[in-house]
Amino acid sequence: MLKNGLFIMVVGFIALILGLTNTDSYQPITLVIGIILTTIGFILYNRAEHKEE
Fold this sequence. Notes:
Layout: H1 2-21, H2 27-52
Helix pairs in contact: 1-2
């Protein structure tokens, strides 16, 4: 679950970067998806860290 959380966070960061650099009409949607994926990835990563301790 640790690697899954990191992977989802990376995908979320990439979506955030694309959302910030796009000038399309999809920019708000991309930003929201990036924020959601980053948050989910952080939660998964945090849970896995606490289970390892």
